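Meet the record:
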Amino acid sequence: MSRQMPVAGAAEVRTAAIGDLGADRRAVVGVILVNGLASAAGLTGPWLLGRIIDTIQAGLGDVLSTVDRLAFGALVLTIVQTVLTWWALKIGYRFGERTAARVRERFLERTLALPPRVADHLPAGDLIARGSTDASLVAMTLRSAVPEVLVAVVHALFLIVAVLVLDPWLGLCGLACLIGVGAAVRWYLRRARPAYLAVAASGAELADVVASTAKGARTIELLGLEHRRTQATEAAINQARSARLGALWLRTVLFPWSEVALALPVVGVLVIGGGLYADGLVSLGTVVTATVYLRQLVGPLNTLMLWIEQLQGAGASYARVEGLADIQLTSNGQGADALDGDRIQVNNAHYSYTGARDVLHGINLFVQPGERLAVVGTSGAGKSTLARLLAGLDRPHTGSVTIGGTPVADLSPDHLREHVVLITQDHHVFHDTVRDNLRIARPNATDQELYAALDAVGAAWMDGLPHGLDTELGHDTDLDGASAQQLSLARVVLANPHTLILDEATAQLDPKTARRTEQSLAAVLRGRTVIAIAHRLQTAHDADRIAVMEAGELVELGTHDELVSAGRVDGKLWQSWHAGSSEDQSLPDEG
């Protein structure tokens, strides 16, 4: 699978944006209507100013009384405009918060809906960047930029119409002078999308390098790869810096040119308006009103110019967030959820991580419902790889791995979790209460069921927590590796799958605790299928059957007594283990 996650095209982003706007159309319409009223009120002030100038110039009637009335009207309408603009922004900000939440929830739903075999191969840094940096930028833009841009656009349209209605010649003169702004924006927009996509992609690459370096720190240290990882990190930093400077360079062209172009309409109207006034074609009040309108137009246009970079960056982030939908659509397999029983069948399965060399060779295996199968073998034998195929995290490039006649890798995520759960020594504890950490597996579980699940895996540490199930992990207390692993196993008890695959699931527990945990799990999961990658003597001894792997091949399969009697690979391993005096008699871990 490609390490490059897809990015949504411009058409897909437009469709998503229209959908988000349509989902809260009442708020959008409210922003436009209220701001329209505010803009109308704002247009009246300059018009009244022109009337004041013409009244003073004409000198007819009670000039002071007329000017006072007109000035008071302008003041009242200015206050009305301010209040209406505040109201429009308030509606817009609330719309932005709701829409930002909708975008985040959609991203989370798509992430959780990804097939495990797909999610496991995605670049972690890129996925994290999309769910954090990109989603946050989109959310911030929806909260702030969209309301202010909507207000600015409506205000600008009202001003343009007003100046054209006031005097078509002056209006056309002013708008003609805005051609420079349009040219600058057009030049910028043609280059902005690829530039900001490059910024986002380089940032994600840097995050991926940092995340992979941190995750493999011990391996890097053991193999002496520090210099190579430093070079990779510096290269990613330089790439991110170069992309950021490229985007910033666009601003150095756009903003200076726009500042000059925005001053031209006012200058043009004063020059042309002065000539028309001298010829008696327009009044002085009309020229002043048109000038004020065009001067006011600078405000919303400046707002648009200031937000244009934010909108381009957010547009690139929006495309990255929405790109997750393409992974789901193209990588979900057949999605067949109809199962004919719970029998697991592996038929002539071959698998390679790189495509150059198989690490599994022609595996044939069946596991009956309710059977407990132990998979044993020395380091590198292929045990964990087989476990990944059985759990649907990978798909054999030749042969098949099915459950109830359906390829495991084709099951939808929800259906797969109901049938097969893979538990490894890797686990995650969320900074949340013990209760919420457990309810990930079963959201409607009662406290009694949560305590029962913890008791089933021997989590005696629960008795020492200060607030019981309400204890905040990572705040009130921290769990060590063994306790965190028991919390993970308790989730399995709550999930209640019919097939459980244990790959080093008790590796971080001491031998006595591991033995108690395995016995507790066996009691809870009696009647269910259990496939255990066996690293301890007793685990294999207690299984119904033992599968022995060597160099990627299944070399022996049978009960413990049958394999010991045969005296081949497993028999020799048993005799070697049995001769040891340590209670923790185990195979070397698979690398």
Remarks:
- The two ends are 22 Å apart (CA to CA).
- The chain has two domains: 10-331, 344-579.
- Residues 7 and 56 are 62 Å apart (CA to CA).
- Confidence is low (pLDDT under 50) at residues 329-335, 581-591.
